[in-house]
Amino acid sequence: xxESSVVSLDDSDKAILDVLQTSGRIRNVELAExxxxxxxxxxxxxxxxxxxxxxxxxxxxxxxxxIGQDCMCFxxxxxxxxxxxxxxxxFNAIQALPEVLECHHLTGNYDYxxxxxxxxxxxxxxxxSKTLVPMPGMQRVSTSVVLREIKSDTAMRLE
Length: 159
Fold this sequence. Notes:
- By secondary structure, the protein is α+β, with helices and mostly antiparallel strands.
- It folds into two domains: 11-51, Arc Repressor Mutant, subunit A (Orthogonal Bundle), CATH 1.10.10; 64-145, Alpha-Beta Plaits.
- The protein is 36% helix and 19% strand.
- It is built from five helices and four strands; from the N terminus they run H-H-H-E-H-E-E-H-E.
- The protein has helices spanning 11-22, 28-35, 39-51, 84-95, 121-132; strands spanning 71-79, 100-105, 112-118, 138-145.
- Strand 2 and strand 3 form a beta hairpin.
- 11% of the residues are buried.
């Protein structure tokens, strides 16, 4: 993944982003009112933020419990080899797994942290034993099942 350069944001940009992070479907006119800009100026700023990649995408936040995805866990993974072709194969395999919502490269005792959501514990066991552990180069896997979500947010603080 290529690192992107930091985009300079003024107070109006931050105000727009604050609103959009929690109200992504807001109409431009209402957004303009909330950030105290004209609708054309607001639209132009949003377009620029999208074009510069600050706004990466818009999405609906789905309540996993309402759709029967009751089991969430965090899985730490260590790989045996860190050769570029082995890493690429791991990245491609992880990208193809819809159960994996997030994958992060770590420092410390494990190489990667996966956030996985699945229907129930039985399916989680099957996912780990039949899909994850058999992946080539897998050295160590450790799973922590989430008992209760205390906070789940997507909005970042903008300074």
